[in-house]
Amino acid sequence: MMENESKKQYDHQCIISYELTRSLVFQNDLAIPKNSLPQAELFDRAYFYSITVGIGLPKRDYKLLLDTGSSDIWITNDTTISNAPYDYHGDLTRKLTGETGLLRYMMGLVNFAYATNFFEFAGKTLRDVPYGIAFKTKDMAPLQGDTSGYLGLGYSSSNRKNLPQYLKDEGYIKRNSYSISFVFSKETKSDGGIIFGGIDHSKYTGELYKFPRLNIATLKKKKSLAIKLSEIYMDGKTFKINKPAAFDTGATMSYFPRKAYLAVCEYFGVDYKDTRASGYPLIDIEKTGDKIIKLDFAGAIIAVQGKDFALDYFPEASSNLKVFGIANSDNSFNVPIIGANILKSMYVVYDLDGEEIAIAQANVLPGPSKIEPIVDSIPQAKYAPHIYK
């Protein structure tokens, strides 16, 4: 497809795209606590991904970490955790609602006051969007770089809508849904993309399998973005999981049950007891970076290479020794979590209205975009082999 033909396709489908700046961030993992398709590109923040939104009139742009593990939008003016704090006093269109909120993380918590304001996202202006202003945090790792808060994309909590629900209510998309790719794009120089209300069929290979979303029992009443993780395959061995695994773009690492975690460590030559490098075990990507494990989601198989579990966080790690990005789910309330390092190998479609999630193997060399709106259900997706409807 010629460049002008691609531009026409984007204009016709109202695809809004823009580039963001790459920067490294070390941040604690999260607890699991139409016809037009707004799209924005993402940049990998050392396995965190951010998106830019404009807040207020006149707008000021802020970068927020993309998080499917929560539903609230929050931003902080606390300079102890953000180098790009929210301009609370300069924002004359914010309106405090009198409500307060609290989010607990694996390490730390955030207290905030709710407000409403104008939000500009991918060229679309939304009115009276609720968001939290975090005046106080406790034991939170800094949001390094120029990140100012979080953009939650999970199911709406209380009476507050999530961003895709607002886009739907304003008529920009037909369905509370979105699709995410974390594959680097040579064309746009971005580290991935998100399409609200649509799907790009060029971003995956093989079948697109869908699943009914599952709840996490320990979260009680909260709806989760999780599907069944049946088994993990490696080196001719099978490790049964048979638990809902939460998909969390806001989690740097992924978490497996203890037996599977120890087996994965052994398979990749990782000494889980050796945590001399900033408290984390290391993987030697020259020796085991090309080895593959396979995750079985009710018959849908996703392959992940060892090098995708290698995190470039700490100066103690040499060019071939990297922090190992898999942890024991004892550290995540016994909930298996599919974090950003595994999600890089997947294309994921979240249909919150239909309460379904679709997955496929990511296409690392996608061709021209093949974007289709999500109207009634996820296009071209079929139920996974071991899902019976």
TrEMBL record:
Residue positions of the active site: D67, D248
Swiss-Prot/TrEMBL GO biological process terms: fungal-type cell wall organization; proteolysis
Cellular component per GO, a single term: extracellular region
Recorded family membership: Belongs to the peptidase A1 family.
SUPFAM superfamilies: Acid proteases
One Pfam family linked to the record: Asp
UniProt keyword annotations, A-Z: Aspartyl protease, Hydrolase, Protease, Signal, Zymogen
Full protein name: Peptidase A1 domain-containing protein
Residue ranges of every copy of the Peptidase A1 domain listed in the record: 49-360
Organism name: Magnusiomyces paraingens
Gene Ontology molecular function: aspartic-type endopeptidase activity
Keyword rRNA-binding among UniProt keywords: no
